[in-house]
Task: structure prediction
Amino acid sequence: MLLQEMPWSKVDALSRATPVVIPVAALEQHGDHLPVFTDSMLLGEVLRRAHEAMSAKVLVTPLQWLGNSEHHLDFPGSMSASPRVYLDLLRDMVENFLFHGFNRILILNGHGGNIVPAQQAMFELRQKYRAKNDLLLASATYWLLGGEPKKVDPTLFQDQVLHACEYETSMVMRIRPDLVEDVTRLKTIDHTGGIEPAHRAWITKDRTDRGHIGSPQFATPEKGETCFRVFTQDVLRLLERMVDWDGKTWVV
Result:
């Protein structure tokens, strides 16, 4: 069910145990070969496929395209909400549904910079509504749900999603090849280093002048289709778990 296509009365008629999916992504630079709307396009396609498979079981809100992208602002065309503003925006969107009694809410994320704010927003709301014992407040990033496209297609060069990389470039090639610039001129930008295993704060230009991290030159539409299939199945499994939750136990 798509929220934007429903009158309020049909929303009100839904069971309050219906999982609500709030998709969030970004509008930011993705190298000089992909469109700035890449994250939103890719999450939108994953969610479109998942919604087709279980549209009667979940309520999906319109995709929130503005994300926490401060680290990309050195590249023109990137747009960002500042971290604390963005965290409050996520809290407000979720709390709208809590106000109306819905108790299973998922922030489904498509941008790395949104991971920490989404987790923190849900953490703060759980503290605020601590007297309720029927809440399932979750956040998830679609490519971090356990699927491994490289095991399905061993021709993938990378073993994880990076930024404007082989994975993301392949996925854009699959759905909008007209928006992908020539990738044969690009070279691999290593994603390791810093102060591992500790986490080093960074802005994108600390790591790459072109804007990509990884190996976009190896992208193909076929690899993109593999990624979409794997990631969509991951999202479907998560949503089924939310639908099947017994409403009280810690383990979902």
